[in-house]
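input
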Amino acid sequence: MSDVKVSGKVIEVGTTETVGTGVFRKRLLVVETEDQYPQQLPIEFVQDKVDLLNPISVGKSVDVFINLRGRGWTNKAGVTKYFPSFQGWRIEASTATASKTVAAENTDDLPF
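output
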């Protein structure tokens, strides 16, 4: 699945980690949604995508485009557990703030 967009405020930008022989790189971004019940979503950027987070800072409103990923793991007792993950591939400044401002201005023009 691709082209899923998550919008919210950045609450954490992790450092780049190298895994294994130093060939695989990953970096964590945590975004808090601005819903009625805000969610803190960990989004992982891997390989060349980790550099997309260089200009991103805590407190910034962003739109993050993600792929939904998942994998299964079977423990020694034979029970399989499934783990979802969000993998980011694009990030940009959020446009949601501007649309909220416009919507708020339009509510003042009620005809009654």
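quick obs: Residues 4-99 form a domain with the OB fold (Dihydrolipoamide Acetyltransferase, E2P) fold (CATH 2.40.50.140).
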